[in-house]
Write a structure and sequence with these properties.
- There is one protein chain.
- By secondary structure, the chain is of the alpha+beta class.
- It has two domains: 122 residues; 37 residues, no CATH class.
- The protein is 19% helix and 37% strand.
- The strands form two sheets. Strands 2, 3, 4, 5, 6 and 7 form a six-stranded antiparallel sheet that branches. Strands 1-9-8 form a three-stranded antiparallel sheet.
- It is elongated, with a radius of gyration of 25 Å.
- The termini are far apart.
């Protein structure tokens, strides 16, 4: 959604509050594509505060379907963050130096979805688990160990001891 903020930028001490729907259906990054399964409207406040600053603030609540880091089962994950951006205004325009880093403000148009995308990227969880004691998947057959045990051999040898294991294997052949 694009919001025209020209009336706020050009008038000192003016503010605007918009109830904005998140139009993002999924979050796409280098990690993959994650569907957004729940999203609440945002009360976005845009204000031209004294001293020549533009402030954009609001609170975002949404849920995305993210695979568990151990067993790869889809986990509905709540993502909550506050938006609090502030820019200097010079002669009724946003400072050019700051504009180089901002892709969600084009002239006097605020692209809310680009703003939210950047904030989701920063607030993305480092690790998602379906449950605290998730057993993960078998490294041999790929079975989800939370659903049951597989018949694979689970003894893992320390890779640093591989040379010694080769010596033992040679003596077994004799």
């Amino acid at each position: 959604m694009i919001i025209d903020i020209s009336s706020v930028v050009t008038c000192e001490n003016k503010s605007l509050t918009e109830k904005v729907q998140i139009e993002l259906e999924s979050f796409v990054s280098r990690l993959g594509e994650f569907p957004i399964i729940e999203k609440a409207p945002i009360d976005l406040q845009i204000a031209n505060i004294d001293g020549g600053k533009l402030r954009i603030s609001g609170t975002v609540d949404l849920a995305a379907s993210i695979p568990c880091s151990r067993c790869l089962e889809e986990v509905p994950t709540r993502i909550h963050f506050d938006i609090d951006k502030e820019f200097r205004l010079e002669n009724s325009a946003i400072n050019d130096e700051e504009m180089e880093d901002i892709d969600y403000l084009i002239g006097f148009d605020l692209d809310v979805d680009k703003l939210i995308y950047g904030e989701i990227l920063v607030n993305w969880p480092m690790k998602v688990l379906c449950k605290e004691d998730c057993k993960g998947i078998c490294k041999v057959c790929g079975m989800n160990l939370n659903k049951g045990d597989c018949n694979c051999q689970r003894t893992e040898l320390d890779p640093r001891m591989a040379a010694i294991q080769d010596v033992f294997n040679k003596f077994k052949e004799v």
